[in-house]
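hey can u run this one w/ beta-D-fucopyranose bound, need the structure tokens asap thx
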Amino acid sequence: MQSHFPKNFIWGTATSAYQIEGAYNEDGRTLSHWDTFCQEPGRVRGGDTGNVACDHYHRWREDIALMKDLGINAYRFSVSWTRILPNGEKQINSKGLDFYSQLVDTLLENGITPWLTLYHWELPQPLQARGGWAERWVCEPFTHLADVVSRHLGDRVQHWITHNEPWCTSLLSHQQGVHAPGWQDWNAALRAAHHVLLSHGMAVSVIRQNVPSAQVGITLNFEHATPASPSPEDLQAARIYDGYYNRWFLDPIFGMGYPADMVAHYQQSGHLPNGLDFVLPGDLPQIATPLDFLGINNYTGILASAPLQADGLPAVLPCSQERTDIGWGICPDGFYNLLNRIHFHYRPARMVITENGASFNDGPDEHGQVNDVRRVRYLEKHLLAVQRAIQNGCPIDGYFVWSLMDNFEWSWGYSQRFGIVHVDYATQKRTPKASYHFYKNFIQSN
Ligand code: FCB
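ok here u go:
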């Protein structure tokens, strides 16, 4: 594949703490709401948990050696809240901070820039027990986490992501009930969304105070919504899905408040019986605190069609017949459209692809090699979409593959492999896949 990426482009891979670290009860770490969610029967496929995961807590040196060999210049990871603040609030566990401090030092020694995500879905269980993200007070402990971590690591970490995928933290977790805490309560989900966004705005200010040279952003996840037909009803269905998934987060972050059409639609659907009573004066400006960059996660898109269902959402189908093993449609053109649309409509100062990748469950062949050609093709197509978007003027300067290695895929457990490195969970053996070698060459030739 011919490619021309700008000089100094950021090439990375991404992971998150609960998905790889394991060591769930070591050195003072306590339970998060994902630990307890995994204990509930039927929540996670096969009853899998993140107790051991990729054992990265013990094998991180080996994992950094892989990153070094891969040739990436950036690594996106998240911190486990309960490793650092075991009761979720004031008391600090220095062993938890030491772990991340060593990780950061070793990354830097290897020429790899750390990109740190504060919240990738592990709320301390005591905070969940008091209502979690559905409650406004949760913004305070989150801001405290941001303060503690940025004070301790801000001398070495310059790139900060407050939240990973607020749509998942709020709607997927509180309305669809697929992720922890597994609620199915629209109003709680919309409150949770607001508190996630508000806590983001609060954390940005704290990080900037502690680390004046920091680059601070948030990572949103997107699904490009295409109408299933050109009929006005399907167009409206796609517009609603876009409001539900994308605009509900983009609009307030970029200073436009919550989208009026969606507020009206949610009111009509009964999801906002008291309107936006959870939005207090000052919240929207706080949420719209200017960002240094917008983190963009994208995997797939959907086709939306009328009529709307009882809860007000359209019926959706994958955006393409071609699917990954998790069933998500492969649609690089949707990704390309999305990138342009974010740039031309919202004008972020900087755009960084903080996650993109695919689940393909290929394992080692008789020679021990993992020939994941479908993932290579997926990555090629999506990198090309990024390149085209840059040529159109989108200020994209980084791309992180999800994921460095196979890991705990939330409610799918270990049944879905997104890594460019294969992990044998019985032995913890890491085997770079064909996609790893593809990415390595791709980085080198750019
Ligand atoms: C994203 C998550 C990441 C991983 C990928 C497949 O939504 O941020 O943790 O689960 O999907």
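The pocket of beta-D-fucopyranose is lined by residues 16, 19, 164-165, 168, 221, 297, 355, 402, 409-410, 418 (CB under 6 Å). anyway lmk if its weird
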